[in-house]
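Extended Data, record 2-amino-3,7-dideoxy-D-threo-hept-6-ulosonate synthase
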Amino acid sequence: MAHNDTFARRVRLDRLYRNGTGGLLVVPLDHPISGAPVIHSGRTGSLDRLVGELAANGADAVVLHKGALRHVAARRFRDLSLIVHLSAGTGLSTDPDAKVLVCGVTEALRLGADAVSVHVNAGAASEDRQLADLGAVAGECERWGVPLVAMVYARGPGIADGRAPRLVAHAAAIAAELGADLVKTSMPRAVADLEVLTAGCPIPMLAAGGDAADGPAALAHLADAMRAGAGGIAAGRLVFNAADPGAMLRRLAALVHDRALTRPLKGISQ
């Protein structure tokens, strides 16, 4: 990742990898714009309390939109990194796979970001604009020394299975080729496919977490991804929709930071 290895970028990456284990546990909380509520989930009662619970139970970073930061106390980020999400799109649109930029890199820096993230749906009708946005943000990140997380998925009218290994590899390649430091994507189910993908990707791959409704199966899949060489986990709904977000996060932290991958995933319930 020497393409933009500035001092500022190294400092910010160190903040992301604050646990020193080489793995990254991110909790995306950017869902309200797309239509999935966050702040009333679990037992937290507010976004600020939820972020505090995440900080106390092993998260390395959270992903938030700029307006959400008004509702989170600054002290929450003493032991937690902030990734400001620059993309948005709603499920109400005639093109639910569309994403547009709603924040810029310099604005994110003014908000205190340690990194930024951009969402791209490869295969969407608006794929060309989304790719252009990712490339432009990568250039700004290069200029300011800001780590970039690309959330890239194979999604669109012609995509039958976004987890197909060929499509996931393509999504990861898009992120790497356009200058991202990390890529979050949905991973294939088969362990053999996971190993090939992580070995062939030049940047760390963060396995998307899925929903709490998937229960133990989601955790088993994430454990497989970590065994196969994933660089970490990015789980939002799996955490904030859980009956006990803190307990769920501790289980994920064991996979990412303790590398407790050979232990059976017993006693996991929602």
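Summary. Strands lie at 24-28, 61-64, 81-85, 87-88, 100-101, 115-122, 148-154, 182-185, 205-208, 232-234.
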